[in-house]
Amino acid sequence: MTAATGPGGAMDPGPGAPPGPPPGLLPGVRPGLLEGRTILITGVMRPSSIAASVAHAVAGQGARVILTTHPRTRVLTESVAALQELVEPVVGLDVANPVSLAALPDELARMGVDRLDGVVHSIARASRDLLGTVLADDPEAVGDGGEPGRERGRRLPEEAGETRMAALRDAFIVSAASLPALVEAAQPLLGRGSSVVALTFDTSRIYPGYGWMGPLKAALEASVRALAVELGPQGVRVNALSAGPLRTTAASAIPGFDELVDGWGEAAPLGWDPNDAAPVARTAVALLSDWMPATTGAVIHADGGATL
């Protein structure tokens, strides 16, 4: 006997069956795991983003969800918020700008927020020439914008090197250093029982095409461990959530992503659906809840077991 499945592999109960849990909820778990909690989520730009799935699951468990976005992408984030029927105003935040970060507590105070029970960091950025390989393909063939292989605007090796270093500085600030910066800005609102979750990708091995994002995610995970030690005495937990490869707009820029996904599905003992972010979102809910009170400084995998 086989069971029919709906989108994302959810069981189809068939006609006349009692309704299942609302979207984003784990079957068998009653709603309200995050009831009364206020969760700040970064990185929601498109419906396909992992952060959007996390926001959906968190809201489904009863939390008050506050989204932040770079001022340039506010319209995109507001569109996703409307689709998910999230009622809170979107907060403009540039994690690379100290002035913007310093203004965050006041922005939240104007919304009546005097405590954050959870913070989700889902921000990463790297120019295309930082993906693929760690070494530059051909420093002498770097054109405007740092794209290898462009003939127009050829630069001398030292000029190409300066462009690449500038891109690396920007990528490090946004992808790794922004976590401690965000936590520092939010610290006045964090208290005993608060949870910080940073989205990462497996750093135990090298994945062709991922380029500099591998070292940057490793730096992010090192920051998670440092923050866990520093905030532990305040009762604040800090963990990283390592997701398997999911088909998002950002992932489409990674060279060889389709091959990565194919290999992942073959290696994962539980299997892996690159089009379903719900398992990752549900893991985030668990980390943000009170059900993992003694877990901090850890990298929790939601990847089907492919990294075993």
List the defining traits of the structure above.
308 residues; disordered N terminus; 7 strands; seven-stranded parallel β-sheet; 11% strand; 34% helix; alpha/beta
Radius of gyration over all CA atoms, rounded: 20 Å
The ordered string of helix (H) and strand (E) elements is EHEHEHHEHEHEHHE
Helix content estimate: 25-40%
Tell me the number of helical segments per DSSP (H or I, 4 or more residues long). Answer: 8
Spatial shape: globular
Strand content: 5-15%
| Biggest beta-sheet profile | 7 strands, parallel
Low-confidence spans: 1-26, 139-152
Provide mean pLDDT, rounded: 87
Query: How far do the termini sit from each other?
Result: 31 Å
Major beta sheet, strand line-up: 3-2-1-4-5-6-7
Quick one: how many beta strands? 7
Structural class: alpha/beta
Structural description of this entry:
Strands 3-2-1-4-5-6-7 form a seven-stranded parallel beta sheet, sandwiched between helices. Residues 1-26 and 139-152 have low confidence and may be disordered. By secondary structure, it is α/β, with parallel strands linked by helices. The two termini are 31 Å apart. Helix 2 links the parallel strand 2 and strand 3 (91-92). Helices cover 34% and strands 11% of the residues. It is globular, with a radius of gyration of 20 Å. The protein has eight helices and seven strands, in the order βαβαβααβαβαβααβ. It has helices at residues 50-60, 74-83, 98-102, 104-110, 157-186, 213-231, 257-267, 278-288; strands at residues 38-41, 64-69, 91-92, 118-121, 195-200, 237-243, 299-302. Helix 1 packs across helix 8.
